[in-house]
User: Fold these one by one.
Assistant:
Number 1:
Amino acid sequence: MQLGADMLDGIFAHCQSRDFLCQLQESAGPRKEVQVLGSNGGVLQRFVLKDRPEDFQVSEELEIGAGHPAGASQAYLRIEKRALSTDAAVRILSGRLGVPLKEIGRAGLKDKQAIASQWLSVPYQAGLEQQLARLDTPGLAVLEVRYGTQPIGIGMHSSNLFRIVLRAVEPEFKVQAGDFHFPNYYDTQRAKLTSASLGELLYGLQQRQPDAIGIFLGRMEQLPLRLQKADSQVRWAMRILAERRQDGVRALLEKFSIADKREYLSALSGVLWNFQLSQLLVGSGPEVLLAGNALGTVVVPAGVQQFQAKTLRQAQVGTSNRYIERPAIAVARIRHVAWAGANVTLELTLPKGSYATMAVKCLALRSVMR
């Protein structure tokens, strides 16, 4: 895929120029009201996802030896966080322990609107256990401490265990224990339209592409007004660039933190991956428009055999523009299903890098399209 200031052009054009059998919508905010709408606007499926943190529980699977403080250079902390992002938890621990942010290792990010446990590594120092015992932060607890010599790095975990409650499911959709194969799309935690648009702008500015600002402002004219209003960074960028142009570029680059820039470029990479994956899967099943603060389409194949071993090269925009191999199909191992009225509880295991929220949405789409 060609990298440039207009990377999203093809996706916008594709989504706006076609009629789709149905579309997938979700509400803004941590509590997600998800709907599958037919071509006539009628609701084919609806449910509530992440109604409360207890409805979305995730535990990271990572092999960590017990170790011993003697000779250890790293301490491994198994934390549990509630309604708190991984980045926020890391910042809290950095401040309380006096450890620079860049020296706290993690295998991945866990959802904010959730109860999530995961491992972090910090440089081991005498008195660490006493510092941890004094940690008193709502929504954050250290459950266990182990010791070793190597910091935890991105992708070191093998899988994640989930317990998910879907509420007000209407109509009841078919789901059963066993393996569920679904397209390995990124969900809006990463592939968000507003963030991807800012990522496209940042990349264009980094590459000194003269049309980067004009493309961004034109892109924002295509963006639903409610999304513009919901994203304060987008509103600010639109105003500062429209008013001050080159002066505004300097202000924009200074305002966005390194973490902001990383998030926006990551969102752009995610949106591009989703489009690339849909292009691979087109023809294997109905194409569903992603509406709201997402961009692109979802194809849920009727059969996955021809794609199961397929990987695609995903551009990591802004990271030396390198590529990684990512599986086209992920497998959710559904261990238990329990209905209680209109609510259903799912217990499942997913490989690292796959999105449980997208697995649930694909289950709903598969049910509608049977």
Number 2:
Amino acid sequence: MKKVLGGQVGIRVRELIREICKRNNVEIIRGHLSRDHVYLFVSVPPHLAISKLVLNSIYRL
């Protein structure tokens, strides 16, 4: 299987995730980029629906 999230793509994905989380006051507790997906454990403010955060992240990436 080809490593899709490696190299420069992985670096950019990390930057975007950090930017999106910072903009939404979301704390990243743990995170990991695998070869084809992202693991995130985050603390989300109560006023923000997780589904909205995920959709914003997908559209931004």
Number 3:
Amino acid sequence: MRLKRTCGSIPCFRLAAGLALASGVLALLPVTALAEEKKSIEERLLEDMQDKQVKTWKEFLEKHSGTCIGKKELILQPEVHEIGNKKYRYSGYRIDVLSESLDKDHRAILGVMAATKNFLPETRENIKALAEKFKAAKVDAILVVGDLAYVGKEIEDILMFLADHAGDIPILVVIGNAESRGPYGRALRNAGKKKVNIINLNIVRLFNGDDFSLVSLPGYYDRRFVQGRGSCVYRKQQVRGLGEFVKEAKGPVVLVSHGPPRTNLGKKGIDATPDGKNVGDPEMTRIIKKLKIDFGTFSHILEAGGKGVSLARNRAVRPGRWSNDLFVNAGAVNALDWNMNGGWTSQGMGMIVTIDKDGRSHKGHVYKAKFELIKLKRKEIDYDDEDDY
């Protein structure tokens, strides 16, 4: 019996034939008709690949809630949703801001947070304080880069609480090494059904926003440091596959993942343990340089939080200083005391990353970025007052 090879949900020969036809047709078209005809052919090919079993975004979330690392085959008949004053096209693995919603400032402001760990009152106060900082800064999106909580209900509660206090902006979430993908997926499914601005970056691998493009790499690379068999571990081939999403980016690419890339900066690195050992993912570093990704947001190594580095220049970047490439560790929102590599004690933190057009080219870089570190102060809670908590 001869088996038919498939590419996604359609036979490879059909996809190849379609692309060949598209190339032939496009070669004969006048220049003025080229873009329009190309778009229509690509749309017809995508229709063949769309998931015929789901018809709405909510059904899409339901079906793929347990996905660890989504693929480009996760395609949905596009839906347009409005978040704040912008409209977005939801197409499965990819979400795009509509051209009519674009501004002209060539600047993106991103709130970054991670490692809430729980939904205890002290942590809740930190989330609220950080959300207010993000709101005041008029961030374009909030990135939540893993380790939300160990229990699915807490993950959902954290995201709903954040959304209630941050306003109507995209909240994009990626799994870390602490969550199990079952509880995580159900929490993101539930939250995403209630609020369309809460987006699971395990299945949405590319988010083309206004003046920025997020490419996600869910999970963590080292199986020794994940929680149980239900966790999300990515492999080298999935790091190498990031190029498939990067090439569809419409703005400066920001890599969003829980664990940082490997540096060799000792305690100045965003991947430095208390003894100064750099333990980030070396394959991620290699691919970042190969694909010329200029920006990234991470966490995981909590004692290295609050830092930024330039991989191109192999040096630390101070808060407030512009850099043509910038990779940051947002540390932990959690309110417990945590001894940091810089010699201070954190009671929770977050970051605001600003990306702006440089106006010049420096070794292929067109954009620049800087970060602001937000240090939170734990609010002492009176647990005898049960009416408040």
Number 4:
Amino acid sequence: MMKNLLLVFVFIMSTQIASQEAIQQWVYNMLERAQMNIDNGNTEQAEKTYKDYADRSYSSNSYDHFVVLRTYAYFLLSQDRNTEALAYLKKADMKKRMPPYDVFMLKFTLGQVFYVEGQRDAAKEAFLEWVRIGTENEFDLRPEGYATLATIYAQDQEWDDALKYITLALDNSSIFVENWAQLKFAIHTEKKQYMLALEVAQDLVRVKPKNKSYIEQMAGVYNIIKFEEESLASLEFKLQQDLLKKPSEYVNLANFYLYKKLPIDSAKVIEKGLKLGVLKNNIKNNELLSNAYIIAKDFDNAIRALIKVTQLSDDSKYDYRIGQIYLQNSDWDNSIKFLNIARNKGWSSKPGTLEMLIGICYIELDDFDNARVELAKAFNFGKEDEVEPWINYMDSTENLRRAVEG
């Protein structure tokens, strides 16, 4: 799975390269012919064209040859022929005085392919060059590159460098990536940085509050740092006296209450921290608050907290979550409203699920026409087995109604 994901990412990135150099017209024409063959399904002819030009002799600083070598390598990667691709990527890497951005992107690709092929040392060298060139030229250093570099250092048990790069990956990512957070947790644990490990464990529980392994992970850290009755009593006393001054103290106490299955107490702690301004009114804290209310089955307040999150984030998962809560509480109109908002924002996880839920809401509202529209969409997304019973229900209900009316 990792191999496929990495190489898909490399291939996508290859199509987005904006070179600082121009290729000659004959190279452009050749690449266009090869691409037309690929589009028409004639990959053999496309490869013959690529290979013919890639294997010719050019000067060591020929940008045209660099582009041909790189393009042929990407073609080979798309065919899962990594060993052959590496040979041409290396030839491209030997070219001299190439534009910095082209070299930058080539180093990224080399790093990913070396890593997938198990050549960790070569991958590390390529990624470090990628970081150096990107830093010197202020290019966009993608978090995926940092994360792979961190993984390499972790596999070599070089924990300081691993921590440096996984932190950069998480800090520069627009979304929370669980695998990266798990790696950061493991690194902090290896370095015996248990309070920092606890922060990561709490983030994982916040994102997946029902994940037992994350809860057990957090509990394990609590046990290591002996955060039990004495620590709890101290924080509770400070809370009552308004003596808690650090955000981490509120978050630790709130998470510990959740761990102890006291979600109402957890919510009160967060609410107080927000009211006093010790906790920032940000996505992380409001999401933690909503989780506490959801676990407590206080859905009105859970929705209130999630609506605050939607005002701070364009991530469709929060609107989807609100729609789910409304559906669970039989508020069909509001469920449809927020599920549609999620869809308009581009919600795409588990294709067909959102359409199924909207369809069910319309059925509950006795609006079979709109229900059929949504269920047809779910059907097209591969939800045939789940859609069919609802279609049968509507058919039988409508037949019964016609029989009664007749």
